[in-house]
Each structure stands twice: as C-alpha cells, then as structure tokens.
Amino acid sequence: RFDEGADIDNSGDRYFVDDLRLVAEEIAGDDDDGDGLEDTWENSYFDSLAALPGDDPDHDGLPNDVEFVLDTNPNDLEHPDSPFAVTGIGQGNLCFPASTRRCYTLQYTDDLLARPQVWADVPDVSNRRGTNTVMSLPLESGPNQRIYKVKVTLP
Asked: How far is CA 130 from CA 58, 82, 152, in A?
C-alpha cells in the first residue's frame, strides 16, 4: 500500500498518486460468451461460463474482470487489499503480484487529454513474463507529470 504524496525514497522526491487503476484491454483468449473473461479461467473457478465481469463472489472489492487480469482466485479473500503499491529509491517503482500466466508492459503518457491518446512503452519494461512473485517496474521521471498504466496480455 502507499500514501498519496508520500516521500518514498528519503531524498525529498515525491510521487503523487491521485488515482491508480487497472486497465485491461481485451486480453481474453477463448471467450464464447463474450464477457471478457477467458473461458478456461471461468470454468476453472466457476465450473461454467455464468460468471459476470462485475460480480465479486469473495467480496474483496475486486470484481471478476480484475481478478481475471490479475490471475487471482475470485473465490478467495486471501490476497492483498490493494494489488498495487508505489515504492522506491531514486526513480520509484510500481509493484504488484505478477502471474506466470500473464505478460506485463509498463506504458506512460505525458498528456491524458491528447486525442488520440498516445501511450509509449517504458524502455526495457515491455512484455515481461510474470514470476508468481511481486514484480517491480521502474517509474521514470519526465519533464511533466507522467501517467502510467500496466498493459496485461496473455503469453
């Protein structure tokens, strides 16, 4: 977990986090019911394709679509309250649990209002396979406020 605006590296640098959210962009493989949840994932946790993306059967605050992207068990409350944290020494890091069944790319933009939105990959942080441990991706500082997102894909 992190504190908004906390001095996280003892150097006086501050990382202000106004809003940190997971963005999934159609990562499902086979999805016969068209709900954005991969069929094998639904069948392994619900024995059917009846699960809905916004449902939260374990009442942990993470709906099924987020649990699918994170590759966590949607029926098990035993995982962190907040899957993401900002930590760091120097530039700072975005830390989160990373499944070996997912690949992760850290992207940034300096302008959320630009149309179309242009997201660039952070150099050397593209298509990293998860390790079933906490993945730490380096945050770069830019000349302006930098906005990050983690793009999650299936291997």
From this structure: 24, 18, 10
Residue among 148, 155, 138, 139 at smallest CA distance from 71: 155
Q: Both ends of the chain: CA-CA distance in Å? A: 28
The secondary element (H helix, E strand) that includes residue 136 is strand 133-138
Contact 130, 99 (CB under 8 A): yes
Burial of 53 (0-12, 13-18, 19+ CB in 10 A): middle
pTM here is 0.69
Reduce the DSSP state of residue 131 to 3 states and report it.
coil
The per-residue pLDDT for range 109-153, each reduced to its tens digit, is 888 788 888 889 988 888 889 888 888 887 766 666 777 888 888
Question: What are the tokens at 77?
Answer: 């409350």
Q: How far apart are CA 43 and CA 50, in angstroms?
A: 9
For residue 130, give the 3-state DSSP assignment: coil
| Overall residue count recorded for the chain in this entry | 155
DSSP 139: P
